[in-house]
Design goal:
Helix content is 59%, strand content 0%. By secondary structure, the chain is an all-alpha fold.
């Protein structure tokens, strides 16, 4: 009799335990928000200041939990990194849109020539003359005979793939390729312009 009682009591305890677990699961699933609290469905993103745009961006950032590193600090850094990436992407997008106009393309080219190649006003004047003759700074310009394309009139146009495959529609890609080509072949825009004046090509 004692063995039967122990067996029945054990089954009862097992059923009671599973009933309790099922109740918790159902309660949790049925409750739409934690503790019945409502959370906002929108999120605001505060972009960093322009100084943070200069921060080096690494796409392979991982949270490091070794040696007791504070998780909340690393998560904050990761959020800051994401915000920096978003701000950088927005700045690049604005630069591309600006370069779709003649004035914007000239400003972008002048800025890149100065910051990345240390070419000042004199070199920019030569570049302006050169690309005005070649394409009138029109990123859609295409020579129907030769197939030369874009602001720098790359020939063949597919050479611009070394910068990016979006060269057909991205004036900044074209500008970057053109400046790189001029530096590699002529050293600077004024030498490229001198070649153009002699041969009507560069």
């Amino acid at each position: 009799m004692a063995a039967l009682t122990a067996k029945l009591f054990g089954n009862f305890k097992s059923r009671a335990l599973w009933t309790l677990v099922a109740t918790f699961i159902l309660t949790t699933a049925a409750q739409p928000t934690a503790n019945g609290l409502d959370f906002p469905t929108t999120t605001s993103l505060a972009l960093p200041t322009s100084a943070k745009l200069m921060k080096s961006v690494s796409l392979s950032f991982e949270v490091d939990l070794s040696e007791g590193a504070a998780l909340y600090t690393q998560l904050d850094e990761k959020a800051d990194l994401f915000a920096s990436q978003m701000a950088l992407a927005a700045a690049v997008s604005q630069q591309v849109e600006a370069a779709r106009t003649i004035i914007g393309a000239k400003k972008v080219a002048k800025a890149i020539a100065l910051t990345e190649y240390a070419w000042g006003e004199d070199q920019y004047l030569c570049l302006n003359r050169l690309w005005t003759k070649e394409s009138h700074w029109n990123y859609k310009a295409r020579n129907r005979v030769s197939g030369a394309h874009g602001i720098p009139q790359a020939l063949p146009a597919s050479r611009m793939d070394v910068v990016s495959t979006d060269w057909r529609t991205n004036p900044v890609t074209q500008i970057r390729w053109g400046l790189r080509y001029i530096e590699a072949r002529y050293d600077n825009p004024c030498k490229a312009w001198a070649k153009f004046k002699r041969s009507n090509y560069y």
